[in-house]
Design brief:
Length: 124
């Protein structure tokens, strides 16, 4: 089912505000790695939001998600202060890992290997 215009608007608003909160809390750059919010999908009733986190050069991404979940109360409070005027209720946030970036790197590596194999066959 396709998202409504309101769902998309709320998703974009939450993504912007959560990005700002993550920067303030120091979650965007950790140990030489980066965390960004790739997207936020909101349910039709606007009561739940799926927050997709993209991690780059983070050693243990599941551990990092757990560290963020530990501070979820603080994150929701800050989010409520920022978007309380636009929303009646702050959606329940659920964190998910977005492995698109990892998938792209794996695919590039495979293509590079195929290209090298083809070049090796041509030289024979």
């Amino acid at each position: 089912m396709q998202e409504s215009k309101r769902q998309k608007q709320i998703g974009q608003l939450l993504q912007q505000e959560l990005s700002g909160i993550f920067q303030r809390m120091g979650f965007n750059v950790i140990d030489g790695g980066m965390i960004s919010i790739s997207s936020v999908k909101v349910t039709p009733d606007l009561l739940e939001a799926r927050v997709y986190l993209s991690m780059f050069k983070i050693a243990d991404s599941h551990e990092m998600v757990n560290r963020i979940k530990e501070r979820m109360g603080e994150i929701k409070k800050e989010l409520g202060n920022r978007v309380g005027k636009q929303l009646r209720r702050i959606p329940e946030l659920t964190l998910f890992l977005d492995d698109t970036l990892e998938y792209i790197f794996k695919m590039e590596e495979l293509f590079k290997k195929i290209k090298e194999d083809d070049a090796g066959r041509e030289n024979k």
